[in-house]
Amino acid sequence: MNKKITTSLVASFLLATSNLYSQQLSEITVVSATKSEQSIKDVTSNVEVITKEEIEERHYTSVNEALNSFPGLSIVSNGGLGSTSSIYLRGMSNSRILVLVDGIRYQDPSNTSGANLSHLMINDIERIEVIKGAQSGVWGADAAAGVINIITKKATLGTSGNANLEFGSYNTKKYGATISHGTKKFDIKFSANKITTDGFTNKLTYGNRVKDYEKDGYENRTLSLNTNMYITDNSKLTFDIKDIDGLVEYDSSSANDTTMKSDIDTTIYSTSYSQEIKNQNIKLKYELSKFKRHEIGTTSGVLKFSGETQNIELSDEYKYLNSDFLIVGIGSSIDDVNYIKADNTTNQKESKDKYLYLTNSNKFTNTIFTQSLRYDRYDNFDNKFTGKVGLKYSFNQDLEFKTNIGTAYNVPNIVKELNPWGTTNPDLEPEETKSFDIGIKYKDFSLSFFESKIDNLIDWSGGGYQNVKGESIFKGFELEYSKLIEENTLFTFNYTRLSAKDEDDKYLARRPIQTLKTSFDYYGIKDFHINLNNEYVGTRYNSADKAGRQTGRYVLWNSVANYELNKNTKLYVRIDNITNKYYQKIDGYATAGRSAYLGVNYKF
Asked: Of 113, 322, 409, 581, which residue is most buried, by most CB within 10 angstroms?
């Protein structure tokens, strides 16, 4: 069988029906489900993974594009590349999704949406893990809907590197390079990537064409450095830094606004020391995430935002029996926000949390049973216990069953309490979430049912953020299927049906009721790989209770072709929106028409 097909199947972890596929599937590991590195086959949670092989074949530009291929995930944005976006995981929005970069919190306390993924480009990524369902029992606040962990590549023994270059529509240019060197005692990796685009207008009245208006451009420069010092065979010292500098143009009041720009600077630091002692792995880590944003051209409202998150944690993973483990951890975190308005008024607030958690996982002959419990002590809110229980049972090699129950405690984002755009509300209360899912997998087919209930949902109302009394309910199902057609074509398919309603049984805004995503990968021509994929977005309304413009009911087709020139060089072409479909994800904001990109990647 073509080796490339096998690699792609591993990337999608969809075909595990043969011994070969099962063996390779077990080699995919995830760390986000329990904070311990596990084979994906040993995880009870509903988990999705995109590996580096799939990323390299599909040539995504941003993390958002890659995430949009998953079932249960939908993304809307206020324009093109770099524009503000909202991610919905099983109908629950950004502020309820914990986003990590190499396990470091990427939650911006000065941003009402929490994590802004718009400035995370696809470069130097090993894999992306998505853990669905309430995960506060493992990770604490912000993990009510789940966890997204973006894991970057690490250095290997010897010297290696790669360089990439891409040009395309909207005068888009993307280029970057990575170099690494590793020995048994020390390794280091450095990467630099830049993207620029003229883009297209941000605001656009439905029915108008982008070519008739000014362009809103975007540029992004991302630098990252990772080092590991292997003090002994059982101890390691690690240091990571990632810096993202972005500048995005946008429209404030009209489609021809040329004055507004958002200048962002995000820096993430992390250092850790780990020591293995017999069956234990003790780890001490410190993390610091800084977020700065300057709204250039603003004459009213907030001119400059600054958010900072610090976390220090000590954990001990103890392995016992044959394949069981127990993790115990303690830690402390601080979130801080300050801002300056256009009239030079300022405000500042911080929030502190001390926590204790434990996770235990037991593996029997055909059963995996995982339990997590966490206690958080906040200085501004009530203390809280959260937890999670997961069970997975394999009837045989082809058939498995799993279910998970979890709780979450989502404290208000600091900037929502301060609310520089309206009325300050120091009485905001945390949201409380209960989630449940149950799933079955048979050969190439999997089906999952899910339901989450949020009490005290935080939403904008009357000039400020308020708690909505009662329960908001998010429920539905996800269906996945894959099929190898003969020996050179892979077909994959996923379908999501969603009901997202508030306590009055009214539909929430901007969540599609159904989505369907398919993909065809063909490897029948030597040195070529051709992909054709599409996405159907069902009924979706711009406002709650099925009000506002209907922004769904469309199909997008995209394609990628890869050609392996030699063992080190690959050429590719990508075409998005092949049929030039006119659509808007948010009423009044433009989307890209047909666009094409040509690139080359060289490895050494």
From this structure: 409
Contact 289, 109 (CB under 8 A): no
Q: Beta strand pairing status for 158-168 and 146-152? A: unpaired
SS3 assignment for 474-528: EEEEEEEEEEEECCCEEEEEEEEEEEEECCCCCECCCCCCEEEEEEEEECCCCCE
Predicted pLDDT at 10: 37
> Using CA atoms, how far apart are residues 491 and 468, in angstroms rounded to an integer?
43
- How high is the pLDDT of residue 20? 35
End-to-end alpha carbon distance in the chain: 26
Beta strands in 106-257 (DSSP E): 125-132, 146-152, 158-168, 172-182, 186-197, 218-232, 235-249
Q: How far is it, in rounded angstroms, from Cα 378 to Cα 417? A: 15
User: Mapping DSSP to helix (H, G, I), strand (E, B) and coil, where does residue 110 land?
Assistant: coil
Read off φ and ψ for residue 15, nearest 5 degrees: -110, 110
Q: Report CA dihedral (20, 24, 26, 28) to the nearest 10 degrees.
A: -170
Alpha carbon distance 385, 405 (integer Å): 14
Q: Which two tokens stand for residue 265?
A: 């600077």
Where does 297-321 show beta strands of DSSP type E?
Answer: 302-320
- pTM over 0.70? The answer is yes
Mind listing the pLDDT tens digit for each residue in 362-411?
999 999 999 999 999 999 899 999 999 999 999 999 999 999 999 999 99
b (16+ CB within 10 A) / e for 339-356: bbbeeeeeeebebebebe
Give SS3 for 90.
coil
163-175 burial, b for 16+ CB within 10 Å, e for fewer? ebebebbbebebe
Could you give phi then psi for residue 95, rounded to 5 degrees?
-65, -10
- In this structure, are residues 404 and 47 in contact, taking their beta carbons and an 8 Å threshold? no
CA 178 to chain centre: 22
Of 152, 159, 295, the closest CA to residue 223 belongs to 152
Res 27: pLDDT: 62
Averaged pLDDT, 111-130: 92
Task: For the chain, give the mean pLDDT.
Answer: 92
Give the position of tokens 């021509």: 525
Measure the CA–CA gap between 91 and 507, rounded to whole angstroms. Answer: 11
